[in-house]
Amino acid sequence: MALMDDLVEAYLQQFDEFMFVLDKKLGLVFVETVSEDTPLSWSSEESANLVAIPTITKAESTRLMQDFASKQADDKEESLKKALEQEDRFLSFEKQVEEFGLENEWEQFERDNAKKYVQDWLQLLQLDYNELNEKHAIHAANE
Known about the structure:
- The protein has helices at 3-12, 44-49, 58-70, 74-83, 89-99, 103-124, 129-141, and strands at residues 18-23, 28-33, 50-52.
- By secondary structure, it is mostly helical.
- The protein has a three-stranded antiparallel beta sheet with strand order 2-1-3.
- Strand 1 and strand 2 form a beta hairpin.
- Helix 3 packs antiparallel against helix 4 (74-83) and helix 4 (74-83) packs antiparallel against helix 5.
């Protein structure tokens, strides 16, 4: 799996008890358990190479679903937007996507947007994706 796939996957996760981390030295993504009882135990040397990967917020997820709905035919758009008005909007939206047979389109739309976000994030941090991906390929092959 390419580094971008790992970064996109990490970005799309929404777990309060986990934090996804990029090791800039190795080009690897790993998961840290986060809680009030177990603080992060990185040495100062380690922390220089580690950066927390941002994850999508509920507000960003909702905006993304609204954008996807807006790109659909009128009848589907209306149903998808109505699903987002429900109390359990994420589940309602996913069910509506499934009902319309749009799972592949939704997943591709979501991943394409996540990839753009990750690319912008890497650029903001002045990290070279190609260099990180080469490191990732080397270390992933050894696992």
